[in-house]
Amino acid sequence: MMEQVPGALGTSASLALRLGQTIFSSASLLFMCLDVEFYSYTSFSYLVTIMGLVTPWSVSLALVDAYSVFIKGLPRQPKILLIVIVGDWALSFLSLAAACSTASVTSLLVNVGTSFCPSKLCSRYQLSAAMAFLSWFLSLASTLFNLWLLPSL
Amino acid sequence: MMEQVPGALGTSASLALRLGQTIFSSASLLFMCLDVEFYSYTSFSYLVTIMGLVTPWSVSLALVDAYSVFIKGLPRQPKILLIVIVGDWALSFLSLAAACSTASVTSLLVNVGTSFCPSKLCSRYQLSAAMAFLSWFLSLASTLFNLWLLPSL
């Protein structure tokens, strides 16, 4: 009999966390990409790269969770769980770094003046950074829940 | 008989980690503070705030480790260890955020032009960000070593 840790891989709480990550990271990607010359700033390209990694990762784990919740419980293997934990952990650090860089560059651009950043664009950058922060927070939560489960396997 | 995990609180490896954190965080602080108007940029003020927290934290834990190594081994209590882990963990996230913000703002200032940042100042900002990254890395290592010890107590 396996313990059911809420939020660990294969539970409905984990599905909710993954869906949240998917939504926030793709929102961050869209706010930054659509109609914006994001590649002129290093931090913005970095944010796009990282969010482009986080989105497919979250989508695929959300699919695994959905399968496990709605169709058939999958057996948990420590090796797979370890890969998921390490992946989440690395991506959460990377998305924190990307969110911080974007937020600080945006704040600098706002202060320097409107020639670098028309007000409509700047608020989109800020929204994108906020979404990246939320996505970081959720993937950190996933890491911790899975890490909690690991010793019991 | 207590297990000796290298790098956990009270060992000589931990003392080395703490000394490294002290050196890197105070170097980051000095590069940023001395003769620079750091308060005109939000990220730089943030870096100074965080490094001003990391330095006394590392110094005090280095003193605890030095006492424990050279004079008398202190008994390890789970509560104190938990406080140290949580503190290290929070400070490592904060210093990663500060290092990323500083690095990205510096890179932006370098690209925008020399009117915002004479080349001598810019290289100091970069050095400060690099030191903050090293300090982040060492405090993450401390967190992980202590976390490894926690279940055995």
Automatic annotation (TrEMBL), chains A, B:
Pfam families: CASP_dom (PF04535). It is a multi-pass membrane protein. Keywords: Cell membrane, Membrane, Transmembrane, Transmembrane helix. InterPro entries: CASP_dom, CASPL-5. The chain crosses the membrane at residues 44-68, 80-105, 125-150. Residues 10-138 form the Casparian strip membrane protein domain. GO terms for cellular component: plasma membrane. It is found in: Cell membrane. Its main location: membrane. Belongs to the Casparian strip membrane proteins (CASP) family. Homodimer and heterodimers. This is CASP-like protein. It comes from Corchorus olitorius.
